[in-house]
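Posting for a labmate who doesn't have an account.
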Amino acid sequence: MPSDTSAPITPPTASYRALLRNREFAGLYASFTLTVAASTLSGFALGTLVNAQTRSPFLTAVSMYGATFATVLGALTLMSVADGNRPRRTLVALQCVSLVGVAAQAVPGLPLAARFGLLLVLGFFQSLGTGTRMGLLAEVVPTSTYALARSLMNITSGGMAILGYAMGALLLRYLSPQEVFAVATALTGAGLAVVATTVREHSIRLTRRPGLRQTWATNIALFSHPGRRALLLNLWVPNGLIVGCEALFISYAPALAGTLLAAGSAGMLLGDLTVGRLLTADQRRRCAFALRLLLAVPYLLFAIHPPLLVVTAAVFIASAGFAATLPLQEQLLALTPDPIRGQVQGVESAGRMTWQGIGAAIAGGVAQCLTPGTAITALAVVSIALTAFSRPSVVRARRLRREGRRMSRTELAADLGEQP
C-alpha cells in the first residue's frame, strides 16, 4: 500500500486492461488467482469430508476456515519479512510451503487431527505470503492505480470462489475429497511457477533486519495510532462474524451449500466491481458505512427460514457489502508510513482472516446449542451493532487523515527505536 498522503484516486484512463499490461502485476495477479482457486477447492473438500465423518456444525465450520486462526501468529511473529529486501524470494519460498501442505491433504486416510494441524501450518505461512504479496503489489503498480489493482484482485477472489465452489460441488460428485485435494495441489503448483517466472526482486527499503523484534516494534507503532486501530477493528470484526454465517451453510442446507456459497461469492464480486471500478475515492468513502450495514442486514431473514430462492438472494445482496473493505483499506493506507506498508497490509489481512476463523468458531459453537438459522441471525445482529457503535471512531480516523497526521520517517524511526 503506497506513499501519498491522500487516498488513491484512479485516473479516468486507468483500466484493468492497462494494469494487466504490467508483466509483474499480471504475474502477481495470475498467481493470486490460482492460489484462491486452490484454497477454495481444498476448503470445500475438507468441509465436506469433515461433515460426512462427524456431522458436527462446529467442526465443519472450523475445517472450512480453520487456517485463518494461525494467520494471527504470522502477524505477531514474523510479519516483518513482508518488508524485507528480498520479497520475491520470500514469496516463492512461502508458495513452496503451501504446495507441500496442500499436497499432504491429498494423502488417503489422514487422521482429522493431522488435517487440522496442516490447516494451522498453512494459515501461518499464508499470512506471511499475503503481506509479502501486497507489499510487492504496492511496488509494481503506481500509487494512483493501487485501489484499482486491489479492486481487481478482490473481484477475482470472488469470481474464483464462485468457480471453486461450483467446481468443488461438481467434482465431488465424481471424485473423492482426496482427489479434489490433488487438483488443488496442481493449481497451487501452477501459481508458484507463475510468480517465480514473472516477478522480479524489489527492495522495500527496510532499515532493520526482519524478525520477531522488528515485527513487535512495528505492531506496537501500528496499534498505538487511534485511527489505525479503529480502521482495523472495522475491517476485522463485522466481516468475520458474517463469514461465520457462511460457515454454517453446509449445516443449514447440506445439499444446497454450494449454491449459497457461490451466491455469496457472486455478490462479493459485484460489490467490488461496482465500488472499486465505478466509484471515485470520495464516493467510496461516503458509502462505506451503508455497505458495512448491508453486509449483515439481509442475514436477519434467516430468523424466519424463508424459501431457498429468498435465502440465496439475501446472501447475494449481503455479500456486496464486503466491498466496504476497499474504502477502509484506502484510509488505512493513507495513515501508514511507506517503510512498513507490507507488514501493515499483512497484519490487516491476517487479522481479517483470523476473525473469519473466530467468526466460524463462534457460529459453530452457537449452532451446536441452537439451530444453524438462529445462529446466523444472532451473528448478523452482533455485526450490525458493532458497525453502528464503532462509526464515530471511523469518522475520527478520516479526520486524522484529512489533517495529514501521518508518521514521518523520523517519527517512524523513533517509534521503532532507530536513529532517523
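Reply:
Got it, the C-alpha cells are right above this. The chain has 19 helices and no strands.
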